[in-house]
Amino acid sequence: MPRRPFFMLLIMPLLFGAEADCEREMTRPTKGYIVIEDADSPIVIAARKLTPPVQLQVRGGDGAWHDFYTTEYVTLAYNGPVPYLSWHRGGSGFATTMRVVDEVGVLSAPTRAHGEINVCTSDYEQTIGRVHCGERSLQASSEGVTLSADRYRTSRFATEGHGGMSWTWHGDGFSRLVKGQHTWAQSNDPWHPPRTSDAAGQWMSARWTGPIDVGTLGEDEVVFNVDLGACSIFIPWEWKDRDPQWDFVLGPMLQNRGIAEVLFDEIAPSIEAAARQEKVEDVKFWVDTWAGIHPRTDSFPEFHFHVNEAAERQVCLRTYWAANSSPETRPDADYVWGVVGQAFLAGWIELFGIGDCKTHPLSVRFCGELGAADGKPTFTLDEASAHVEMEPYCCRPKCNNDFIPKLKEGLEISVLELTSEAITRQLEELTGGLPWEIRRIETTPKGVYVVTAESDNDRQYGGVCRPDLGTESATQIERATVSFTAAGRGITQQP
User: Fold this and answer.
1) How big is the chain by its Cα radius of gyration, in Å?
2) How far apart are CA 456 and CA 471, in angstroms?
3) What integer pLDDT is reported at residue 377 of this predicted model?
4) Which of 56, 36, 93, 494 minimizes the C-alpha distance to 296?
5) Are 331 and 274 a contacting pair, CB within 8 Å?
6) CA separation for the pair 78, 45 (Å, rounded)
7) What is the per-residue pLDDT for 493?
């Protein structure tokens, strides 16, 4: 017994030191939201190491924050009701948003941005806003499997190992479901365009209207919860798929074209230039040369939406050419080359002089990710995606063993010469007319969402934006759910 007081004297400085070292912190709720039985039930909000005065605030229907509880203590321990006038009605039940503010500022809440805490009644049915009391998820119909998604970012659901299950998507008004697959497999030789009857896969892009039955998933299908932000503009791959509400901005900026159509316009001058050729005495004098490669007049460029093995949503371009080992021609050197075409201009001198390898068809493909940095769009080339296929030669081992491998290697290197900076520069020019900084770019099967505000706390929030608790008057119109079969030829200029 006498040892206990002495032991306590030893550990008390350690206990007090641990308390002194901890930072201001919200201790309840631990998940960033509270679910109560009904509107009369009390809630518990606790925090410590605060700097008084401390206010517990609630967001009203006018979008403003209102104090309803204040303490002069460094510790907050509120156990009481929610102010009745702060409730927002859902499809059924009620919800509201709270936060804790002290002299330092807004206190961070677990798993929530801007310190916001959502409170919901158990019968609350959400109709607007970013998920309030719960998480985005994909729930299996059996075995109690639930796959969670990030509340603020786009997430891929890892459904591997859960084959044969039927799934239900639980998203929110700030997100969209993307499900499907894309394959490069085709029914004819890969150096020729796919047949018109070929399909590259099936895609679905669904708006959130409450829980959605996704069904079972194929072995190669992927599922994403795409975060749209509070404000975003949809820009389609093809102009016909646009949102007319944005014509006044996108029409003048893109000249009534989608992103794929803009890229085709960029490829076109390079192909046209390569088709106009002159005799060259010594190709080594012409580093920027197409040498023995020629555009095929019977095949048009292709644009594809693709998800690679690393679950990256990509845009891909594929073009078709014919090549031989006799570099006797070059395009008009005075022609203004397109950005995409410049990718194939360099590093070809060592590919030729291998013998008489007749003209054979080939295809060139590369992919990359669209994103944003410093308020502007970016394109990041996937170096592993550079892919060349060429028809082999019959009874010409030197052509098969020397010319084709060197040509493929040179083309793949030349694709990398395209550089992310070149296409990024082109995207910056195209989007220079937007009156907002770009927060994110989210790629989907039918086009991209250019996010201009992450939440209603964003200084760019306003105008055509998504509603949430306290901003119910916002006017964003969501695109309808769409399901379609992606053509093996992708999007192409060919009629």
Assistant:
1) 29
2) 8
3) 94
4) 494
5) yes
6) 5
7) 79
142 Cβ neighbours under 8 A, 6+ residues apart: 165, 166
> How far, rounded to the nearest angstrom, does the alpha carbon of residue 2 sit from its chain's CA centroid?
66
Average pLDDT, rounded, for the chain: 86
Whether 474 and 485 have beta carbons less than 8 Å apart is answered as no
At 201, the amino acid letter reads G
My answer on whether omega of the bond before 29 falls inside 30° of 0, hence cis, is yes
Closest CA to 28 of 42, 48, 49: 48
pLDDT given at position 347: 46
Question: For residue 477, what are the contacts with CB-CB under 8 A and spacing of at least 6?
Answer: 243, 245, 464
Q: Are strands 117-121 and 33-36 parallel, antiparallel or unpaired?
A: parallel
**pLDDT, tens only, 97-143:** 999 999 999 999 999 989 999 999 999 999 999 999 999 999 998 77
CA dist., res. 351 & res. 410, Å (int): 7
The single residue listed with the structure tokens 């410590």 is 48
Collect all residues with Cβ–Cβ distance below 8 Å to 28 and sequence separation of at least 6.
44, 45, 46
Residue that the structure tokens 């009904």 belong to: 38
Rounded to two decimals, the pTM is: 0.88
pLDDT of 175 > 50? The answer is yes
Distance CA 76, CA 87 (A): 22
Q: What is the pLDDT of residues 261-292, one digit of tens each?
A: 988 887 776 666 655 554 444 433 333 344 57
Q: Look at residue 90 and give its three-state secondary structure.
A: coil
Q: What is the pLDDT of residues 210-226, one digit of tens each?
A: 999 999 999 899 999 99
Q: Which of 318, 313, 315, 276 is CA-nearest to residue 294?
A: 276
| Distance between CA atoms of residues 243 and 233, nearest Å | 9
